[in-house]
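Retro notes
What went well: the complex prediction finally ran end to end.
Inputs used:
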Amino acid sequence: MVVLLVVMGVSGSGKSTVGSQLADKLGWKFYDGDDYHPKENRKKMAEGIPLNDQDRIPWLCCLHDILRRDHESGQNAILACSALKRMYRCILETRESDFRSVTHRREEDRPAPLKILFIHLDGPADLIAKRLEKRKGHFMPAALLQSQFDTLEPPSPPENFLTISLEKPVSEIVAEIEEFIRNMY
Ligand SMILES: Nc1ncnc2c1ncn2[C@@H]1O[C@H](COP(=O)(O)OP(=O)(O)O)[C@@H](O)[C@H]1O
Ligand SMILES: O=C(O)[C@H](O)[C@@H](O)[C@H](O)[C@H](O)COP(=O)(O)O
C-alpha cells in the first residue's frame, strides 16, 4: 500500500523541517510545496500580499499531479504544503475544488481520490512568529502569519488527519508520526 502524507499548517509551523526529516528517516520521496509556487505567487508573498484561491488552485493541482504520479508508481511520498482550507485539501486528493462536481460525475469517468493522511502542525501564533523572525533567506514575510491563521480551516472529521503540537521538539514530532503510520497501515 502506498502512503501519501501531507504535512500541513501555517507558514513557519515546521512543515519543511518535519517533512524532510521524516522522509530522510523513512527513505521516502519528499516535496516542498514552496518549490512549486509560480513566480507570480512568490512575488506576491514577498510583497506581503496573501495568496487567494485563484493563486493557489493551479499550484495545488500541480501538487496533486505529483502525488498521483508517485501513487501510480508505488512510491511513498511526503509533501510539505500549507493546505490551509478544506477545499485545498480536497484538490490535493481529487484535483477538483468542488467535491460535489466529483461526486456528480459518472464513477467510471473519475479517478479514485488519493488517500492522503494530513499531519497538521498546530500551535500558537506567538511561538511561530518568534521562529519566523529567526528564519533567514525565505521569501515569506512574518507579517503574513496573521492572514495564514485567518485562512486556516483546521482539519476535522471525516477528514483523514493527525494533529500534532508544534511546541514539541522536531524529533518527537517525527517519532509520533512514524508511530501513527506503523499502527495505521
Ligand atoms: N518543532 C520545532 N521546534 C523548534 N523549531 C522548529 C520546530 N519546527 C520548525 N522549527 C523552526 O521554525 C522555523 C520554521 O520552520 P519551517 O520548517 O521552515 O516551517 P514551514 O515549512 O512550515 O514554513 C525554522 O527555522 C525551523 O528550524
Ligand atoms: O498557501 C500559501 O499561502 C502558501 O503556500 C504559504 O502558506 C506558504 O507557507 C508559503 O509558501 C510560504 O512558505 P512557508 O510555509 O515555508 O513559510
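What we learned: The chain has one domain: 13-112+124-184.
What to try next: split runs per interface for comparison.
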